[in-house]
């Protein structure tokens, strides 16, 4: 019963008995063969016209007629043409295009055999040929009958039920498996046999004229119709192809035993194609009938054709029938397409490429000359050379001999099977005597793919190691940066509070101790930290450059450890340092002034206490009760002298109070005792005043009894009291501490002292006058034999002895005062010398620093020569700067000596010591920073392959727009990019471009883009860099295509250090026992 016509979407639907479009082509080839073999007048010497010979001839008249009709039918291109009368073609010969192409195979037409009848009477009709080729009669609609496939679909693995395949593991096949010789389709009175020719013999046999053989791997015009497959070569191919198929099928836990039998249902064939292509095929048919098998095989053949393979003479029916030759031909086409065609060496590919690869790999090995894929491999040395070329540890090639081919072949095959996971596809005995080219190519292609995969694994491992090394180095840089930044910030935080702590109640000793600590900080603590700060900036710039070069995100330190944060903290520290230095020097000056005032207060208090001692008791005395009138008068006169003395002491008391008030206002640390003493003196002074006033009233009352008055004593008292007061003041002035800070102050003191010495002569006359009064009084007492007690002056307590002692003190203190003032004068002259020396050296050092700083800046902006020469120039400047440090130390010593002498002004120069320090530190910092920038440019040039001319061009454009030399802002960066040819779109798109670029060049939002970041961006636009996708692909190669990688795979493929690093850093995969290398690769780049 006829089945429905085949659907256009199913070009390979055929009936179980071979009906289908390809039968037309079979018929077409049959007639072509008959037509070309019809040489009745000129028979071939190698053929026979006998009807029972292997080759039968059909009359050329019949063949031409039938071929003519067939050509009309076969070139009708419309698949549904039903016009039976068009071009005179019979309806029985019309067929669809699908039927025409589905069974395009080579036919060996044995018209007459010993078992079949001969065409002895009438030539066969076209219908007869159709029936012999598997066509059925047309249905009433005019189409050939063909059964439709089952609509039920399933997967290939589900279709391969245990009943269909009981072999789930890789099987070893013996070369003794008897190959099927032919496959025949026999009808009642004809016998058709089709078979491929012997495959690639080393020397093809001589083909008789007009009897072409068929090779289904060759184009249509090169087919030959002669020759069965040689049994030995067939045996080799079956063994090799079976092993090759099993090497792929074992990946899905299945295998084949007999290649022509196990592919008959099409399921394992489809599974094999899925494995080797990595692409899913259509769902297979579920049934086990021949129609389902043919449908599955057709799907496999359609897939092969979709990959650009032209399947000539290979049909699904022959595969389903177990035709060994057609099956081997199909597998060979698969091997060619999926194992050999993709091989590319130089400009050659496929077979020639594989041959060239073998020649290159074995070119240096003696006794190996590979010219083909059969004879060149007989002695086994070529196989051993390939193994030794890639794995020299597996065999000793020099110990092999070409005289022992079996040993060489067995050795190569055993090593490949044991160590390279390449199954034994060839028999050494057959290889020695009759090697098959296709089997050899198949086996050698396994070597090629294994060693190529090994090279890919090494490349992937090297890439991973390189990226991991870069990542670990960057992590170490980050740890070093955090450590250095933490230590520097901690040091700043430790010293800044100390510098900012400026109490107001410290003593002079404590403040001087702080000055010594500050000098220790300046000499010992700060210089190493300055170097650390420069190293930290260099480390940060180097790290950022390395991160950009390795396509990593910019390093963002933790809060407070950014370079700008450290710079701000450093600026705060230097501000606190400057303020502390100004404060401590001013505080020392203030406290020394206060100490001078306190000492002056104590001397005046001592003088006052000496004067006031006994005054209250004297004023409270009641001696007037027992005194005579002359005594009272004497007491009154004495009291008048006391009141005169009291008035002269009023200034001293006021000075004591004023000094105490000034000390209080100036926050003298030990003001308590001062105020207590001042209060005591004031209270005492008030009491003396009241007591004196009271005594004066009492003496007035007793004035009538006090008439005796010794004018001499009175004159002495009146003259001695102011003179004695003057002597006290002179002693105080002469004993005063000399504390000056300028030469003019010393000169003023010298002038005042000279003026004082000019008054000494007048004081001497006054002293002589007092001495004359004392001498006259003594003379009168002695002359008139008066009581010696009368020598005492009743009007004053000042004796001539007191005046003489004070006068002696003044004369002794005067030269001492001269000496002190002269010493101070000499000290001020030395200070002026130091000031002048400092100015001379500062005026030399400062221009040197400015000149070299300008030179460093000029080199950084535009190096005159190569980048390496610029680094050498900077290194030389750095060496000169270190050698010049001695000059700066000399100025530092002079400045310290000036400070010890309390000289704080720098006359004759505009450069202070702080300015010179900052200039020298700025020079060192600029040198280190410029060296770091240029070395980063060298690193980018070498790693990116950029030329120095391009770097200079970028620098020239950058400097043109960087007017203020602090980096480019957004507008300047946009103009600079446009100037070097970078495409910035207009409008909002251009704003997005600039936003993306700024995120790359200024990730920390400083608002300025430095030159090294700009250079790195321009080089990255044209350089190929490692990406996260490359890392993932590299790990996938090591993992054998899995989405996770195991510990064993990491340790087998990577060096121990790198493997342990990955194991420590990777996360566990959630679906299997392994690690998630995809997430790990992404963390390396994010």
UniProtKB/TrEMBL annotation:
SMART domains: CH, efhand_Ca_insen, SPEC. Residues 949-983 form the EF-hand domain. Pfam families: CH, EFhand_Ca_insen, Spectrin. One of its GO terms (molecular function) is calcium ion binding. The keyword Calcium applies. Residues 235-339, 348-452 form the Calponin-homology (CH) domain. SUPFAM superfamilies: Calponin-homology domain, CH-domain, EF-hand, Spectrin repeat. InterPro entries: Actinin_actin-bd_CS, CH_dom, CH_dom_sf, EF-hand-dom_pair, EF-hand_Ca_insen, EF_hand_dom, Spectrin/alpha-actinin, Spectrin_repeat. Keywords: Actin-binding, Calcium, Metal-binding, Repeat. Residues 1-22, 136-217 are annotated as: Disordered. PROSITE patterns: ACTININ_1, CH, EF_HAND_2. It comes from Steinernema hermaphroditum. Belongs to the alpha-actinin family. Residues 12-22, 151-200 have a biased composition (Polar residues). CDD domains: CH_ACTN_rpt1, CH_ACTN_rpt2, EFh, SPEC. This is Uncharacterized protein.
């Amino acid at each position: 019963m006829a089945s429905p016509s085949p659907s256009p979407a199913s070009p390979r639907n055929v009936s179980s008995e071979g009906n289908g479009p390809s039968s037309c082509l079979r018929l077409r080839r049959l007639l072509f063969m008959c037509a070309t073999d019809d040489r009745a007048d000129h028979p071939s010497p190698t053929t026979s016209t006998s009807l029972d010979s292997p080759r039968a001839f059909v009359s050329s008249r019949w063949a031409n007629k039938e071929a003519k009709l067939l050509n009309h039918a076969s070139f009708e291109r419309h698949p549904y043409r039903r016009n039976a009368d068009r071009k005179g073609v019979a309806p029985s010969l019309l067929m669809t295009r699908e039927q025409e192409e589905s069974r395009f195979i080579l036919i060996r037409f044995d018209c007459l055999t010993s078992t079949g009848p001969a065409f002895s009477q009438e030539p066969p009709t076209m219908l007869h040929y159709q029936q012999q080729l598997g066509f059925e009669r047309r249905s009433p609609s005019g189409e050939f009958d063909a059964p439709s496939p089952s609509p039920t679909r399933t997967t290939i693995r589900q279709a391969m039920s245990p009943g269909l395949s009981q072999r789930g593991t890789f099987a070893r096949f013996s070369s003794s498996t008897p190959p099927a010789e032919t496959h025949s389709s026999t009808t009642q009175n004809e016998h058709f046999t089709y078979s491929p020719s012997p495959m690639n013999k080393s020397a093809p046999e001589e083909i008789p004229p007009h009897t072409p053989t068929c090779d289904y791997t060759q184009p249509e015009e090169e087919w030959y119709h002669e020759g069965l497959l040689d049994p030995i070569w067939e045996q080799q191919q079956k063994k090799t192809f079976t092993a090759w198929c099993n090497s792929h099928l074992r990946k899905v836990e299945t295998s084949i035993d007999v290649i022509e039998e196990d592919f008959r249902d099409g399921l394992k064939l489809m599974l094999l194609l899925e494995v080797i292509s990595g692409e899913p095929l259509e769902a297979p048919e579920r049934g086990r009938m021949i129609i389902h098998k043919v449908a599955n095989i057709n799907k496999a053949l359609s897939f092969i054709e979709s990959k650009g393979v032209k399947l000539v003479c290979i049909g699904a029916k022959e595969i389903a029938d177990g035709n060994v030759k057609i099956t081997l031909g199909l597998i060979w086409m698969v091997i060619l397409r999926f194992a050999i065609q993709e091989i590319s060496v130089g400009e050659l590919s496929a077979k020639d490429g594989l041959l060239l690869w073998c020649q290159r790999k074995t070119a240096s090995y003696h006794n190996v000359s590979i010219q083909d894929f059969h004879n060149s491999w007989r002695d086994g040395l070529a196989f051993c050379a390939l193994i030794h070329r890639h794995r020299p540890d597996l065999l000793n090639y020099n110990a092999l001999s070409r005289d022992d081919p079996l040993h060489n072949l067995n050795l190569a095959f055993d090593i490949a099977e044991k160590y390279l996971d390449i199954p034994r596809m060839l028999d050494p005995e057959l290889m020695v005597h009759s090697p098959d080219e296709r089997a050899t190519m198949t086996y050698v292609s396994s070597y090629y793919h294994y060693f190529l995969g090994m090279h890919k694994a090494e490349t992937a491992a090297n890439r991973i190691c390189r990226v991991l090394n870069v990542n670990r180095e960057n992590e170490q840089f980050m740890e070093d940066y955090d450590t250095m930044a933490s230590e520097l910030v901690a040091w700043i935080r430790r010293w800044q509070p100390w510098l900012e702590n400026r109490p107001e109640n410290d003593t002079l000793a404590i403040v001087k101790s702080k000055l010594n600590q500050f000098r220790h900080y300046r000499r010992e603590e700060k210089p190493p930290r300055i170097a650390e700060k420069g190293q930290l900036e260099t480390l940060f710039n180097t790290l950022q450059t390395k991160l950009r070069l390795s396509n990593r995100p910019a390093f963002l330190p933790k809060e407070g450890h950014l370079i700008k944060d450290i710079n701000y903290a450093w600026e705060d520290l230097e501000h606190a340092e400057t303020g502390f230095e100004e404060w401590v020097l001013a505080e020392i000056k203030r406290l020394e002034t206060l100490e001078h005032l306190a000492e002056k207060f104590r001397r005046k208090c001592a003088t006052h206490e000496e004067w006031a001692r006994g005054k209250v008791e004297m004023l409270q005395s009641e001696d007037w009760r027992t005194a005579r009138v002359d005594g009272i008068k004497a007491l009154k006169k004495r009291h008048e002298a006391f009141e005169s003395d009291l008035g002269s002491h009023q200034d001293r008391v006021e000075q004591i109070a004023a000094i105490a008030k000034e000390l209080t206002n100036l926050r003298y640390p030990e003001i308590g005792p001062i105020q207590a003493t001042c209060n005591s003196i004031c209270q005492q002074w008030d009491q003396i005043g009241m007591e004196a006033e009271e005594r004066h009233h009492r003496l007035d009352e007793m004035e009538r009894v006090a008439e005796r008055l010794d004018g001499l004593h009175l004159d002495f008292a009146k003259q001695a009291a102011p003179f004695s007061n003057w002597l006290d003041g002179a002693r105080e002035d002469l004993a005063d501490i000399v504390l000056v800070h300028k030469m003019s102050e010393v000169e003023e003191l010298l002038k005042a002292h000279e003026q004082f010495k000019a008054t000494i002569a007048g004081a001497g006359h006054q002293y002589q006058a007092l001495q004359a009064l004392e001498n006259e009084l003594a003379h009168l007492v002695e002359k008139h034999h008066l009581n010696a007690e009368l020598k005492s002056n009743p009007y004053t307590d000042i004796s001539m002895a007191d005046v003489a002692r004070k006068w002696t003190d003044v004369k002794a203190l005067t030269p001492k005062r001269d000496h002190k003032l002269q010493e101070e004068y000499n000290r001020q002259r030395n200070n002026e010398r130091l000031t002048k020396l400092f100015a001379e050296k500062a005026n030399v050092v400062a221009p040197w620093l400015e000149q070299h700083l300008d030179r460093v800046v000029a080199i950084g902006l535009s190096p005159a020569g190569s980048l390496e020469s610029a680094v050498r120039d900077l290194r030389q400047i750095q060496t000169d700067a270190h050698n010049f440090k001695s000059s700066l130390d000399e100025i530092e010593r002079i400045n310290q000596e000036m400070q010890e002498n309390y000289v704080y002004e720098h006359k004759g120069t505009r450069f202070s010591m702080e300015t010179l320090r900052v200039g020298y530190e700025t020079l060192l910092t600029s040198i280190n920073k410029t060296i770091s920038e240029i070395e980063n440019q060298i690193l980018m040039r070498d790693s990116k392959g950029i030329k120095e001319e391009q770097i200079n061009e970028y620098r020239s454009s950058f400097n043109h727009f960087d007017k203020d030399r602090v980096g480019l802002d957004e507008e300047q960066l946009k103009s600079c990019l446009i100037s070097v040819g970078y495409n910035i779109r207009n409008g909002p798109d251009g704003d997005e471009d600039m936003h993306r670029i700024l995120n790359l060049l200024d990730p920390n939002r400083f608002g300025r883009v430095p030159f090294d970041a700009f250079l790195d961006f321009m080089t990255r636009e044209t350089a190929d860099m490692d990406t996260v996708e490359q890392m993932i692909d590299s790990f996938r190669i090591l993992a054998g295509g899995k989405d996770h990688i195991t510990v064993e795979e990491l340790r087998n493929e990577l060096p121990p250090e790198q493997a342990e690093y990955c194991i420590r850093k990777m996360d566990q995969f959630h679906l299997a026992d392994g690690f998630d290398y995809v997430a790990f690769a992404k963390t390396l780049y994010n």
